[in-house]
Amino acid sequence: IREDYDEVSEFVANYIKERIRQFEPGPERPFVLGLPTGSSPIGVYKRLVELYKSGQVSFQYVVTFNMDEYVGLPRDHSESYHSFMWKNLFMHVDIQPENVNILDGNAPDLDEECKKFEAAITRVGGIELFLGGIGPDGHIAFNEPGSSLTSRTRVKTLAYETIIANARFFDGDIAKVPKLALTVGVATVMDAREVVVLITGAHKAIALAKCIEEGVNHMWTVSAIQMHPKGLIVCDEDATLEL
Ligand code: GLP
């Protein structure tokens, strides 16, 4: 538990920096990092860019896999997760573009795209650290309430609550929010050797309580972290209101 959003961001950025440095990645042995979008990780990305610019971390041998992407939104749309990732992190650091993996929500065969994504994760030896955020309904990636805890990367229909929550990025217009997304599954996240989840703000307080003080439950999918041998939730004081 950290005081506020800035301290959460600072802590998590330093944590990731340390993990990458300790791993000593190289061309034959890259550090494989899973990444989220949303407002939660923006502070972490900002801080990681600063750490890169001051020479404290390099992404040269880091391979990334993003959690999710909207279906049908053009890749260069300002709210696509492709745009988000390049704008907030990738264009400011030394990552090699071929090491960036983001699901293609415009692929002609979406199921095939999901299979290819899982295969790519396997090919690099799995994910070392998966960073995530959650929705107010406790979803991780786009694993909406009711998602199987053994789910893998697939097409998912967004919950109405998620569409409302994300309308703020689409001129507040629910009609403009894509209704489908490609998302890693709960099991894809939990297969990572380490999972770090960011939870900030009073609007996530119920979700945090459900996820750590009640049982593992597919209606609050981030609760699966309870079963992970190396799971860490980093939250601010506001998010602890219901604990
Ligand atoms: C979307 C993303 C999630 C993210 C969530 C929370 O639903 N698919 O990965 O965790 O938004 O977003 P925010 O961090 O803006 O609250």
What can you tell me about this protein's structure?
The chain has 243 residues and is of the alpha/beta class. The protein has helices at 5-23, 42-53, 81-88, 110-123, 160-166, 186-190, 205-213, and strands spanning 31-35, 62-66, 68-70, 100-101, 129-133, 154-157, 180-183, 194-199, 231-235. The strands form two sheets. It has a six-stranded parallel β-sheet, with helices on one face. Strands 3-7-6 form a three-stranded antiparallel β-sheet. Strand 8, helix 7 and strand 9 (231-235) form a beta-alpha-beta unit. The longest helix is centred in the first third of the chain and has 19 residues, at 5-23. The structure holds 2-amino-2-deoxy-6-O-phosphono-alpha-D-glucopyranose. Residues 36-40, 67-68, 133-135, 141-142, 162 line the site of 2-amino-2-deoxy-6-O-phosphono-alpha-D-glucopyranose. Residues 4-226 form the Glucosamine/galactosamine-6-phosphate isomerase domain. It comes from Parasitella parasitica. Homohexamer.
Q: What's the total number of strands? A: 9
Strand order of the largest sheet: 4-2-1-5-8-9
Name the quaternary structure. Answer: single chain
Structure annotation, total helices: 7
Percent helix: 25-40%
Bound molecules: 2-amino-2-deoxy-6-O-phosphono-alpha-D-glucopyranose
Give a brief rundown of this model:
The chain is of the alpha/beta class and 243 residues long. It is built from 7 helices and 9 strands.
